[in-house]
Every structure is written in C-alpha cells, then in structure tokens.
Design brief:
- The protein is about 30% helix and about 20% strand.
- Strands 6-7-8-3-9-10 form a 6-stranded mixed β-sheet, sandwiched between helices. Strands 2-1-4-5 form a 4-stranded antiparallel β-sheet, covered by helices on one side.
- It has 2 domains: about 180 residues, 3-Layer(aba) Sandwich (Rossmann fold), CATH 3.40.50; about 70 residues, no CATH class.
- The chain binds adenosine-5'-triphosphate.
- The site of adenosine-5'-triphosphate (ATP) has 11 residues, from strand 2 and helix 1.
Length: about 260
C-alpha cells in the first residue's frame, strides 16, 4: 500500500534518513522505532509531504486507486489521497468541542476543504461521520465537551479521532501514548489495535512493551538507516538492535519477556 525506495533526507552534512526501503501492507500495524535522533520524525515528515526527500521514491497505492508517487505532493494532497497522521504535540483546537474538532477534520479531508470557514453550514453533512468517529475512539459521551477540558489521555484519543476523520487508508501515529497516565495507556493500546483492523498503521512509539504487544512488524532505524525489519520477537533478539539501544532500552529486558503485560 505504501512503499519507499532508497528514501533519503539530508540536512546539510547530516543524513537523517538514509536510503530507506520500507513497505506497509494493507491492515498491517508496523512500528517504527529507534534511539533518539534515529530519523523517525523525519521519515514521517517525508511520508506526509512536510519535507521533500533529497533522494528516493515514495509510492502509495490506495484501496481503490492506481499507484502514485508522493514525492513533490503537498501535505494536503497527500492527506486527501488517504494518508493521515496524528501528532506528538497535541493538535486539537482547545476552544472547540470534541465533536467540532472531528467534524472540522472530516470536512478538511473532504471536498469542502477550501470552504471550511466561509461555508460553515456545509459542515452539518459531516456530523454523522464525526459521531461515528467519536464512537470508535471512545469519546461519544464527551462530544459537547470543550477539547481543553479533556484529560491528557482523552486528548490523545481525540488526536486519533482527528486522524481517522475523512476515512484514510493509512494512519501514521506519532507517539499516541506520549505523556498518557498508566491508567489510560490500555485504552489507547486498544484503540490502536482497533484502528489497525481496517487501516494500515505506522506507529512511532517509545514504549517498547507497547511496541512488542501491538505490532505485526517492527522496523528499527538507527542513524537514519534501517537496521532491522521483522516480527517483534525477532527484533527483540536482534544483536544489532540491542547494540543501537545500548545505554537505553534493552529489548531483551522487556516486561513482556516475563509476564506478558505492559508496564
Ligand atoms: N530541520 C532539520 N534541520 C537539521 N537537522 C534536522 C532537522 N530535523 C531533524 N534533524 C536532525 O535529523 C536527525 C533525525 O532527527 P529526527 O527528529 O527525525 O529523529 P527521531 O528519531 O524522530 O528522534 P526522537 O526520537 O528524539 O524524536 C537528528 O540528528 C536531528 O537533529
């Protein structure tokens, strides 16, 4: 569904993403991990058009369309093709209600995108979609709550809801658990697993227990290059991955290795 060939991004003399060959299949949940500065965010930004590659190709084949190149496409064009992302830094309009946040996102992804403020009445047609999304992310009861009044965990659920609006084929989730309390993490994990049943999901996640639990596949970046691309168990035992994380997380010491539950 989404594929990169030799994808490279250089910032001056620094190669942040280094000849990455990557493939994300339909309904696959793939995690992208790597130490700080490995190039994960830069890779996301290349996929969404926020950055242009120095070299390489990005190909996207939507459910019902022909293969297209994403190189040179604007972020809004890539979003309209069906690749949506959530953000590490929360991206909600705090003064708007939860429902309005999702409804506006649904319209922004649809054909009324350019009339978003001029033609506010047209937003009504997106209400049904917004309610369905809120149901799915577990926020139906909070529809009329101002987004600013949500707990941090609920804001992350709303982030996923905003990314879901407009019915994308691919979801790029950037640390949806960042800063979430331990009581709320389970809810976000359930949500990630649920959306992965009918979307291709690429997840950037620092919590390795979550990565090991939810992923079909794990891709490891180090200094911009892919050093492992395999099932979670194989990645956990890969010496190159352990070396890359030296001084940080050791995948062999994951809590999952002992009790199967995330910390
Ligand atoms: N706009 C930029 N200009 C110059 N260098 C950049 C820019 N963006 C990122 N970099 C550098 O590229 C490298 C990869 O950064 P990136 O943010 O993609 O890593 P990351 O894996 O997402 O890190 P983290 O886990 O800390 O978020 C780093 O060395 C970073 O300093």
């Amino acid at each position: 569904m989404l594929r990169t060939n030799g994808l490279t991004k250089r910032f001056g003399g620094l190669t942040a993403v280094d000849s990455v060959d990557f493939e994300l299949a339909e309904n696959e949940l793939c995690s992208l991990i790597g130490p700080n500065g490995a190039g994960k965010t830069t890779f996301f930004n290349l996929l969404t058009g926020a950055l242009s590659p120095t070299d390489g190709e990005i190909e996207f084949t939507p459910h019902d369309g022909a293969q297209r190149s994403l190189v040179g496409a604007e972020p809004h064009e890539i979003a309209a093709m069906g690749i949506h992302r959530s953000y590490q830094v929360t991206n909600v309009f705090p003064g708007a209600t939860v429902l309005e946040n999702v409804r506006v996102a649904a319209q922004a992804a649809g054909p009324d995108r350019l009339n978003i403020w001029r033609n506010a009445g047209a937003l009504d047609r997106y209400l049904d979609e917004a309610y369905a999304v809120l149901d799915r992310v577990g926020l139906a009861d909070a529809a009329e709550t101002p987004a600013s009044a949500l707990s941090h965990g609920a804001k992350r659920q709303l982030e996923v809801g905003i990314a879901l609006a407009g019915d994308p084929d691919v979801l790029l989730l950037d640390e949806p658990n960042a800063g979430v309390s331990s009581e709320s993490v389970g809810r976000i994990i359930d949500l990630i697993e649920d959306v992965a049943t009918d979307h291709a999901v690429l997840l950037v996640e620092h919590n390795m227990d979550i990565v090991m639990e939810v992923s079909d596949r794990v891709v490891v970046l180090n200094q911009g290059a892919v050093i492992a691309d395999d099932e979670p168990e194989a990645v956990r035992g890969d010496p190159a991955v352990q070396e890359a994380y030296l001084g940080g997380y050791d995948p062999t010491e994951s809590d999952l290795a002992t009790d199967g539950e995330p910390a």
